[in-house]
Known about the structure:
Layout: H1 3-12, H2 59-82, H3 86-99, H4 101-115
Helix pairs in contact: 1-4, 2-4
Amino acid sequence: MSLGHILSCTFTNKCPRCKAARVFENNNPYSFKNGLTMRKHCVSCGLKYEREVGYFYGSMYVSYGIQTLLVSVMYVLNIYWWKMDALYLVFWIIGSALAIFPLTFRWSRIIWIGMFTKYQPELKGHAWHDKQ
């Protein structure tokens, strides 16, 4: 799995196996109705997203990495450009982390699925549908 493919699927909310259907029900992560609601299966290729109980615990490490990158970039920006007091910087970082949480939640899950799923475009449209 290439990094470019994983990132492409992550930013477009597409299944990493077929790249045809959305992983999350809504493309807007800030929607209060279903912004963070994830489908059980891909409606195009049938990939089961949560393969076992606790499968997405690993995506917390990806989310941690994304948030750590954010804090590091903000810290470096503060040293060379912003020059805020430490207390203001802490509040700014916490506010930013909370503001982008819906994005990092979604991105980390799609990246996690993509790390363990092979891209198979020939499966597009060959889904078995969950009857639940």
